[in-house]
Structures are given as structure tokens and as C-alpha cells.
Automatic annotation (TrEMBL):
It comes from Bombilactobacillus bombi. It comes from the Bacteria. Keywords: Oxidoreductase. This is Inositol 2-dehydrogenase. The lineage of its organism: Bacteria, Bacillati, Bacillota, Bacilli, Lactobacillales. One of its GO terms (cellular component) is cytoplasm. Belongs to the Gfo/Idh/MocA family. The keyword Iron does not apply.
Length: 342
């Protein structure tokens, strides 16, 4: 395997799958993108833009017919477990987007299958762990530069301009709810930065900014308070109403200083001076904000396959993040404080 290219395929060519496909095809010499699987209308794009001739609408057929080493799973969240199980049983390494799934029973089956294939790499899409700002902040925290963590707050708020496409998506498939869909990365970051687990949550949600979501049983904004096992307090804020763009922010308050990452989600170093005022353009979506992290995480996947090393973020991290998101949702649904059992 060491000098040979890794033969990969991608399942899903939607908002994120197309980015991964481009990155795999153009940014990484370790991979050979052999085949893709998605809805018929998206396959043409892969043929014309990426020159992929092996295109499928049935992922099982693709895995059975192509001689693959690995697969990227970027299909709908609810299908991640069955796709992962099928790929692992076919002997492939798997990169699977977050979250692991929607329903805990199928995710548990997925986790068991991952454990029963210890020689195959399983990597989940926690790409924020590859983002240079988070990595920089993590070093600062580890070096004690802000003292002991007291409080941590994660914002995951999509642009208002995306509300229509979200409504279509959530009408067609199960998003898993505001905390699973929007805050799973923040939950992972809270655990990653603090090194501790949450034990209880109290969460609230509303639809003031998007009353139409009521009809499809979704919330536009959700806020969860988490009590960590060492007394640290965490807040998660998920939403889809940011008028200015994509607000993904993390604040870590320490006993001797604070860190804020993405407080102003600036696009670049440009400041615009016009008769409207002094303006800093901001990033508009996850693609823009995490473009380099998406490249770095697939490079790490290739390195993990070549070096036979499992990634730092394990499937247990994915499972715990899922359980925490579900506990937050349960707190909203039951209007109760919910104990978190991981
Ligand atoms: P999307 O709806 O835009 O795309 C889904 C893709 O899956 C489409 O290409 C569709 O044709 C394909 N698909 C649907 N059913 C299929 C099936 N049965 N077999 C094969 N392909 C099938 O979705 P998206 O926004 O790209 O999200 C995909 C996944 O990526 C989700 O799990 C989502 O949570 C995750 N995601 C992660 C991040 C991140 O920050 N890491 C960002 C966006 C999305």
C-alpha cells in the first residue's frame, strides 16, 4: 500500500460530497478517485468536472464492482450506519461524515462493526480538529496560558440565507434536530478542549426567527446548558438565523484569560471603507470557513491508511457527541433537566 495510490470512491455528491470529491481528486496525490455514487442528476457533474467514468446510484453495487481500498460516506446522515457497515464488511477503510447517524440503535450496530474491523481505518468528519485556529487555541489551553477552564461556549449558527434550503432538506429527511445537526461539532470541541464529559443538560429552543419550521417539527434556535463532570459550565447555541453570514464561534473562559475563535467570522484581511461605513466581509458558509480543514482531514485519512494508525477522534467520540446532542434534544422535548449517560 505504501507507494500505491489508495483507490477510493465517494458516496454522496451534495453540498459537502462535491467538496470532498474535488479535494480528493485535486488536492491529494495519495488518492485515486475511482468511482462516485449519488442521485443520477449529480453524476453528470462528476463525469464532466472530475472526469470520473464509474458512476453509480447504488452504493452496494459500486462497492461490489470496483476494486476499492476506501470510501468516503457523505450521504444523508440516517444512511451512514448501513453504508459504513456495508463498506467495512467489504474490507474498506471508511471516512464517514458527522454525525455517525440519527438513530442510536443503528449507530450502536455501526460502532460494533467498526470495533470488529480494527485493522480498517474509521475516521469521522470532525474537521474542526484540523482547523489551524482551533489547533492554535488548543496548544494555548494545554500550555496553561489561560489558566483553568471555567466556562466554554460554542455557537453554530447558519446564515439566514440558507433557511429555505434547510426547510427543503428537513422536509425530505430527518436532520436529527437542532443540536445534532448544528452543534455536534461544538459538542466535540467542548469535550476536546476540556477533556471532560457533560453530566446534565437543560435546553430550550424556539422558532421566533422561522415560524415555518414548526410545521416540520424543527427548531430554528436551540440553547443548551451543560454541566461538565468537573464543574465547568458549557453553553451550546445552535441556529439558522445569522443575517450576516456563518457564525461559528467558540469562547473559552479561563481563570487567567479568555480565548475567542471566530468571534468575528472574517472572510480575509480586507476592510471596506465606503459611504455605508467601515465593513469587514464575513464567511458565508462552512465550505468557506473550513476549506483548508476539509483538505487537511482527508490528508490525515490518507496518512492513517498508509501508516495503519487510527485517527485521534475515535468512533467513541462520535458516539458520545451523538448521545449528548440527543440528551439536549430530549431536554427541549420534555422540558426537563436531563442526565447524560455516556
Ligand atoms: P446533501 O443532501 O446536499 O447531499 C446528500 C448526497 O447523498 C446527495 O448527493 C444525494 O444524491 C446522495 N444520496 C442520497 N441518498 C443516497 C443513497 N441512498 N445512496 C447514495 N447516495 C445518496 O447533504 P450534505 O449537506 O452534503 O450532507 C451530507 C452529510 O455530510 C450529512 O451527514 C451532513 O451532516 C454532513 N455534513 C457535514 C458537514 C461538516 O461540517 N463536516 C457539513 C455539511 C454536511
Amino acid at each position: 500500500m505504501n507507494n500505491k495510490k489508495i483507490r477510493v470512491a465517494i458516496i454522496g455528491l451534495g453540498r459537502l460530497g462535491a467538496i470532498h470529491a474535488k479535494n480528493v481528486a485535486e488536492q491529494n496525490n495519495d488518492f485515486d478517485l475511482i468511482a462516485v455514487c449519488a442521485a443520477e442528476e449529480q453524476l453528470k457533474w462528476a463525469k464532466t468536472q472530475l472526469g470520473i467514468s464509474a458512476t453509480y446510484t447504488d452504493y452496494r453495487k459500486m462497492i461490489d464492482e470496483e476494486q476499492l481500498d476506501a470510501v468516503f460516506i457523505v450521504g444523508p446522515t440516517a444512511l451512514h450506519p448501513e453504508m459504513t457497515i456495508y463498506a467495512l464488511n467489504a474490507g474498506l477503510h471508511v471516512f464517514c461524515e458527522k454525525p455517525l447517524g440519527v438513530d442510536l440503535q443503528s449507530v450502536n450496530e455501526m460502532v460494533q462493526t467498526i470495533h470488529s474491523h480494527p485493522k480498517q481505518i474509521f475516521q469521522s468528519g470532525f474537521m474542526r480538529r484540523f482547523d489551524s485556529s482551533y489547533l492554535y487555541a488548543k496548544k494555548m489551553v494545554e500550555n496553561g496560558e489561560i489558566g483553568k477552564i471555567i466556562y466554554i461556549r460554542g455557537y453554530g449558527i447558519d446564515p439566514l440565507s440558507g433557511i429555505e434550503s434547510f426547510t427543503k432538506f428537513a422536509t425530505a429527511s430527518d436532520s436529527g434536530g437542532i443540536f445534532l445537526d448544528m452543534n455536534i461539532h461544538d459538542i466535540d470541541l467542548v469535550r476536546w478542549f476540556t477533556g471532560h464529559e457533560p453530566v446534565r443538560t437543560w435546553a430550550l429552543a424556539n422558532n421566533i426567527a422561522a415560524p415555518e419550521l414548526e410545521k416540520i417539527n424543527e427548531y430554528e434556535t436551540g440553547v443548551a446548558q451543560l454541566e461538565m463532570d468537573d464543574g465547568v459550565i458549557a453553553t451550546l447555541v445552535g441556529g439558522r438565523h445569522a443575517a450576516h453570514g456563518y457564525q461559528v464561534e467558540l469562547e473559552i473562559m479561563g481563570s487567567n484569560g479568555w480565548i475567542r475563535i471566530g468571534e468575528h467570522p472574517e472572510k480575509n484581511l480586507v476592510t471596506l471603507f465606503t459611504n455605508k461605513g467601515v465593513v469587514r466581509p464575513v464567511v458565508q458558509d462552512f465550505v468557506e470557513r473550513f476549506s483548508q480543514a476539509f483538505i487537511d482531514e482527508i490528508k490525515a485519512f490518507a496518512a492513517n491508511i498508509k501508516n495503519k494508525t487510527q485517527p485521534e477522534a475515535t468512533v467513541e467520540d462520535g458516539l458520545k457527541a451523538l448521545k449528548i446532542a440527543k440528551a439536549c434534544q430530549k431536554s427541549v422535548d420534555t422540558n426537563q433537566i436531563v442526565d447524560i449517560k455516556l
